What we know:
Blueprint: H1 2-35, E1 43-46, H2 55-62, H3 75-83, E2 88-96, E3 100-107, E4 110-114, E5 118-121, E6 126-127, E7 140-142, H4 148-161, E8 169-174, E9 180-184, E10 189-192, H5 197-207, H6 213-218, E11 219-223, E12 231-234, H7 235-240
Parallel strand pairs: 1-3, 4-7, 7-8, 10-11
Antiparallel strand pairs: 2-3, 4-5, 5-6, 8-9, 9-10, 11-12
Amino acid sequence: xxxxxxxxSRKSIWLGLALIVVIGAGIWFLFHQEVTSDRPIQEFQxxxxxxxxxxxxxxxxxxxYLGKSFWGVELNKIxxxxxHLDWVNQAVVKRSWPNQLRISIEEQSPVARWxxxxxxxxxxxxxxxxxxxxxxxxVRLDGKLxxxxxxxxxxxxxxxxxxxxxxxxxxxxxxxxGVWNIQIMDGxxxxxxxxxxxxxxxxxxxxxxxxxxxxxxxxxxxxxRYSNGxxxxxxxxxxxx
Length: 241
């Protein structure tokens, strides 16, 4: 009797294994048929809110891909095309069965201007959109394009150092010889070199409140590059020169 039960148990196991193999083969066959089919892309869905970009701009990029193979289309190519749009910082394209593409777009987040025509995002990367509306009052950075990240960090460092004077920087320019020109909003310009720059700036911030009101009101440029102090260029002197 025990031998009969054991034989039935083995038979059940083999039948179960055979059923699993058949089901697996069926699933693989259906999957293979699906991924090799010419199922077309019929629609796309933008899953993120757009602020700077218009939906029409994105649709213009995606339109040529409608009707193409759902499984054969290169998602990286679509993402690269979207990255060429103004204000796109990152784009992610995914398939959504049976016939849809899902589009996620991260727009640029500008924190400063770059020269006359560019903007700088929060990572210090420069981009050049067709329009700069609404960003005219942002701090302007000028320097070598490859140094944009360092320039943004320098802006934060200098702004922090000037907090004691309640000054806001409106423009930071790095010249080819490494000298900083720091334009204060509705105020003077500071000139600072790299040699012992933190000490020179700290010394100026400490000395500024002790200057006579006449100097402070008439000063247009403070040159901090001196080892033993700083020079003041007055508005009248600049006008007459």
